[in-house]
Design brief:
Layout lengths: L7 E5 L4 H12 L3 E6 L2 H11 L3 E5 L5 H9 L10 E4 L15 H29 L3 E5 L12 H20 L6 E7 L6 H5 L4 H6 L9 H12 L9 E4 L4 E3 L2 E2 L5
Parallel strand pairs: 1-2, 1-4, 2-3, 4-5, 5-6, 6-7
Antiparallel strand pairs: 8-9
Helix pairs in contact: 1-8, 3-4, 4-5
């Protein structure tokens, strides 16, 4: 197991869910954290809870120029990013394609695909120059299987899968590593956002079985990052025990 002590880890979408859990898990390993999210107040609260050295960036990954500026203006002691955790992502709606909310499509494409691309394009060149770095993308089982009414969301996660594989090909002549963690159902704010704040509908998504917790995915990311430098974990699919595929979920009935 390679030490993560004093490694600089940049986490997008760090204010909640998997990103927040990842902040705690990497902090336990002694990493230094660059935490990025739109909600600065949540980042500040998280930093207080972590009680370690953090650098906070109020950032929407949809905004290309803001990402470039943020990375270009990192203080010198934060510039040598060792691990990039591309976690920011969301789902919007669960409708048939011909009934879908086009604004929701745009938001998913701009966040899940373009946001990941923008951040990767800003961070990876420095890793290549330093001949050291690890990119870990948070994908989804939806990047392997399309499920009913998941059309555009699944397309964005298929894109993450393709981009991850493309990165690995492009970086094969460097010491950099590229990995993806592709979870099934994880109980986070994801469903609240997907259903535009319909709390009851969101809660029903996680009833009748034990979903993954954010820490389960975060632990997996930390394990991937802590492998010896000659070991590259290309892909891990992680599911709750009650789920066997994107479309197969066993719920207990009362």
């Amino acid at each position: 197991m390679a030490s993560l002590q004093d490694k600089i880890v940049l986490i997008t979408g760090a204010s909640s869910g998997i990103g927040k859990a990842a902040a705690f898990q990497f902090a336990k390993e002694g990493a230094k954290l660059i935490l990025c999210a739109r909600r600065k107040d949540r980042l500040m609260k998280l930093a207080e809870e972590l009680e370690i050295e953090c650098y906070l960036i109020e950032l929407d990954v949809q905004k290309r120029d803001d990402i470039k500026k943020a990375i270009d203006e990192l203080p010198e002691n934060w510039q040598a990013i060792d691990i990039l955790l591309n976690n920011a992502g969301l789902g919007r709606g669960l409708d048939k394609l011909h009934e879908g909310n086009i604004d929701g499509w745009e938001e998913m494409i701009d966040t899940n695909i373009k946001g990941l691309l923008y951040m990767s394009r800003a961070v990876i060149p420095g890793m290549v120059t330093r001949k050291s770095g690890h990119i870990i993308n948070i994908g989804s089982i939806a990047g392997h299987e399309v499920y009913p009414n998941g059309n555009v969301y699944c397309a964005t996660k298929h894109a993450v899968d393709a981009i991850t594989k493309g990165m690995r090909l492009d970086l094969v002549d460097t010491p950099l590593r590229v990995s993806t963690v592709d979870p099934g159902l994880v109980e986070t704010e994801f469903s609240d956002i997907r259903f535009y704040g319909d709390t009851n509908r969101a809660k029903s998504t996680y009833q009748g079985y034990k979903a993954l917790e954010p820490v389960d995915v975060a632990d997996t990311a930390v394990w991937i990052a802590s492998r010896p430098v000659h070991v590259q974990i290309a892909e891990i699919v992680i599911l709750p025990t009650a789920q066997s595929s994107a479309t197969s979920l066993h719920k207990e009935t009362k």
